[in-house]
Amino acid sequence: MTIAQDIANTIVDPKAYADGARIDAAFTLLRRESPLDVAQPTGFDPFWVVTRHADIQAVERQNDLFHNGDRAATLTTIEADQLVRRMTGGSPHLVRSLVQMDNPDHFAYRKLTQGWFLPQNLRALEGRIREIAKTFIDRMAAHSGRCDFARDVAFLYPLHVIMEVLGVPEVDEPRMLKLTQELFGSADPDLNRSGEAVTDIAKGVGEMQKTVADFMVYFNEMTEDRRRNPRQDLASVIANGQINGQPLGHLEAMSYYIIAATAGHDTTSNTTAGGLWALAENPDQFQKLKADPALINGHVEESIRWVTPVKHFMRSATADAELAGQKIAKGDWMMLCYPSGNRDEAVFDRPFDYDITRSPNKHVAFGYGAHVCLGQHLGRMEMRILWEELLPRLESLELDGTPSRMQANFVCGPKSVPIRYKMH
Predict the structure, then answer these.
(1) 311-336 pLDDT, tens per residue?
(2) CATH number reported for the structural domain that contains residue 367 in this entry
(3) Which of 56, 7, 20 is nearest to 354 (CA)?
(4) How many domains in the chain?
(5) pLDDT in tens, 365-414
(6) Residue 283 domain boundaries
C-alpha cells in the first residue's frame, strides 16, 4: 500500500509548510492510518515517510544501517537530482557538510569543532551574548510599541551571535542573512534569488548553485586570511583544521562554513520568532512565564518542539532491514518527518497545545543520535538569554496583524510576526 497521492504531494509542498494547519493535518492522518508507508509525489522517486517519534529515533540510532550521504540528504525531485549529479560529477550533494556525511568522515569532521559547542566552553560566551541580546531588546523598545519581531529581532540577534563566533565582520551580516534566506527559502518568492515563484526546476537548481558559489567565494577569502593570521574564532579552526593529518578538502571546508553560517542562526531565529508568536496567541502562557522566570527553559524547549524549524532529513538503507514491522529494502530512501514526530500523540499529551510547563519534552527537533545538532546548546543558550532579558521589560504583548511562514519543505519558520507591546 502507498500513501494517497494528494497526501504524498502535500508533504513535499513548500506552501503546505507555510500554511501550518495543512501540513499538521496531513501528518496527523499519516500517524493514524499509515505511520510508515511509501509516498511517490509527482516528480519524485518513491520514499518511506517516517512519521512516528519512536520510528524516527530508531532510524537515527542506526547510522550504519541508514546513511545520510549515499543519496540526497534532503528532498529533491528526480530532475533536480540529475542536474546536481551532472554539476558535481556524480555526487547528489552541492555541499558536503556533516549533514551529508557518514562515518568515519562524520565522526572525524564533527570532532574538529565539537569542543566549541560544548556547554562548558559556551559559558565563556554568555556575557557577550547577553550584551548582544540587550542591544536588540533596546532596539525593540525604541520601536515605540510596534514591530515585526521576526524581521526586527529574531532574524538578526542569532545571526550576530554566530557571525561573531565564526569571525565574520558585522558589516557582512546582511549579506550572510540574504544568502541564508536564498538557500533555505529557494521556493519562496519573497526570499529566493529570482524574486519569483519557482516553476522551472533547472532554474531553481541553478539559482541555488549560485548562492552556494557566493558563499564559497566569501569563505575562501576568509580561509586564506585565517591561514595567514589565525584568530580565536571558529573560522580559524576550520581553516587550519586537519582530518587524519591532512587539511580539510576545499568542498568540505566551504561546506563547514556554510552550515555554521546558515544553520547556526536560521533555526534559532525561526524558533525565537515562533516562540514569541505562540506567547502572543496564548496570553495565559505569557502571564505564567512573566510570573515565574524559572519556566524560561520550559518555554525554550516548547518553542523548539512547536516550531521544529528543520522539517525533514532523508536517509537511505545500506541493507535490507525491518522497521516497525515494515520491510525496508537496501537502497530505499526515507523521509524523517520531525514536525510529525513532535506532534506524536503517543509521546506528547495535547500535542497541539502550547504548554511551557510540558515535562518531559523529548522532542526530536535537533535530530537524535550521532547526527544530533552540533549547535543545540548554543541555540538554547541564545534563546534563554534573550527571554531572560526581554521578559522583565515586556509588560504586554499581542499580535498586530497576521503572522506568516516561509514557503519551504526543508528549513522553515515564521517570515513575519507583527506585534504590539508595551515595554519599560
Answers:
(1) 999 999 999 999 999 999 999 999 99
(2) 1.10.630.10
(3) 20
(4) 1
(5) 999 999 999 999 999 999 999 999 999 999 999 999 999 999 999 999 99
(6) 5-423
